[in-house]
Specification:
- The complex is a heterodimer of chains A (167) and B (256).
- Chain A is an alpha/beta fold.
- Helix content of chain A is 23%, strand content 26%.
- In chain A, strands 6-9-8-7 form a four-stranded mixed β-sheet.
- In chain A, a hairpin with a 5-residue loop joins strand 8 and strand 9.
- In chain B, helix 5 packs across helix 9.
- Classes of the chains: A alpha/beta (167), B mainly alpha (256).
- At the A-B interface, loops of A face helix 2 and helix 6 of B.
């Protein structure tokens, strides 16, 4: 690992650099756009970054913590501390617009925005990311990772996944 | 918050019981991995297992801040008598109908418990409770769907689901075994109590079971299976713990 020398680093620099740190399972969305970076505090000697998990059993979290730490350590001579807590509970509304685009690019139907409560029809009706049809059915609210559900498109006859809405 | 000795005991017992239930049922659900009757069900049970074990881990981490061992040590090295899990979660997976019905009854209790805990004075737990509600919503959605479909599909599926309900109902009542510390927990504004939870649980599951054409056993036949919360367990827990902790015990200091 090479160590950077930036001392007058700002919060914006950190967030910009973290655009390069992607979800290990979805390489088209950064940890920032996923909404899991909840706080960045740049002190005189140390940069403290706080994250929150998407799902409490998410196995990728430790990996992402390390990736975040490594990325910022490359940038600056300051110490970098990455911690995870539940002070704010992640929900899919925290995914940025750019993040939603990133999900689509990966072939995932993005989660619908919600008003704090996820309604059952938001889970069952996903828009097919392949043909745009809404004539789709849910096969299972669980998929290959905790954040995805399985769907089927009655129009283009393809199976697809949705990044499922979470409140 | 500073607790006196009895209060600390009360809080720890409360947290252990919630997390132990999740760890044990999580492990049981994981036993369907590779065996599910449909590939989607295989995935569903494996995902639910992953959620529940992850949730247990975070509650064990609260216990660690209260002076208990770290999460892995708590999960993998305790004796059966130290576990506070209820009997419902300990039973082997059985047939799929049994596992589905167990999940249905357990998931609803858990969902309501965490709803009640969203404002608990135990701040770390309140944050987790808010987080877990969104996750458990998917667990109840899964079991509700299957209970309704199988309850009404055909004669055989209906009979099997009704039998599973009859077998699991008294065990499920064991979730609500009252703690000797119930008064302390209420005074500390941590938890309202198991009977309040049980009432809300019955209100939630009754219409769903009716929709599935399934009948809750007569109240006169209810015989709650208690003991788990006090460390008295089924014969199934100990061999399961043996298996669960096997890898950890091989090298407790191993880095993953």
């Amino acid at each position: 690992m090479r160590f950077g020398t930036l001392v007058n680093i700002t919060k914006e620099d950190v967030l910009e650099a973290l655009q390069d740190v992607k979800d290990p399972e979805i390489p088209t969305i950064s940890v920032v756009d996923l909404g899991i970076i909840r706080n960045v505090e740049v002190g005189e000697r140390i940069i403290k970054i706080t994250m929150t998990p998407t799902f409490s059993g998410c196995p990728a979290l430790k990996i992402m913590e390390n990736m975040v730490k490594e990325k910022i350590t490359e940038l600056t001579a300051l110490d970098v501390e990455v911690t995870t807590n539940f002070d704010t509970q992640w929900n899919t509304n925290m995914i940025t617009e750019k993040g939603l685009e990133g999900l689509k690019k990966h072939g995932l139907a993005p989660p619908l925005r919600h008003e704090g409560l996820v309604q059952i029809d938001m889970i069952t009706h996903a828009e097919c990311p392949l043909c745009g049809s809404t004539n789709t059915v849910i096969k299972s609210p669980f998929g290959p990772t905790l954040c995805r559900s399985l769907h089927y498109c009655n129009d283009c006859l393809n199976a697809f996944e949705q990044f499922k809405p979470v409140e | 918050m500073q607790y006196n000795e009895t209060e600390l005991k009360a809080v720890k017992e409360f947290l252990y019981k919630i997390a132990d239930d999740q760890l044990i049922i999580g492990h049981r659900n994981s036993e369907w991995t590779g065996l599910g009757p449909l590939v989607e069900e295989d995935i569903a049970f494996s995902s639910i297992a992953q959620d529940k074990i992850g949730q247990a881990q975070h509650i064990y981490e609260i216990l660690h801040t209260l002076g208990e061992a770290d999460a892995d040590t708590i999960a993998f090295t305790r004796n059966a008598a130290d576990f506070k899990s209820c009997h419902l979660v300990e039973y082997p997976i059985g047939e799929y109908d049994f596992s589905l019905m167990r999940n249905f009854l357990f998931n609803h209790a858990e969902k309501i418990r965490f709803e009640m805990l969203a404002d608990t004075s135990l701040e770390q737990l309140a944050k987790l409770a808010k987080k877990y509600r969104g996750e458990i919503k998917y667990h109840t959605m899964h079991s509700d769907t299957w209970i309704t479909q199988l309850g009404r599909a055909n004669e055989e599926s209906h009979a099997r689901m009704q039998t599973a309900l009859n077998e699991t109902f008294n065990l499920a009542l064991g979730i609500f075994e009252e703690s000797e510390f119930a008064g302390n927990l209420k005074e500390l504004n941590i938890f309202e109590g198991e009977s309040a939870l049980q009432n809300r649980w019955l209100e939630a599951i009754t219409p769903l079971l009716e929709k599935a054409s399934l009948v809750i056993p007569e109240r006169s036949a209810w015989q709650p299976v208690y003991g788990g919360r006090k460390g008295y367990h089924t014969e199934y827990l100990e061999p399961m713990l043996e298996e669960m902790g096997e890898v950890f015990r091989l090298d407790p200091k191993a880095e993953w």
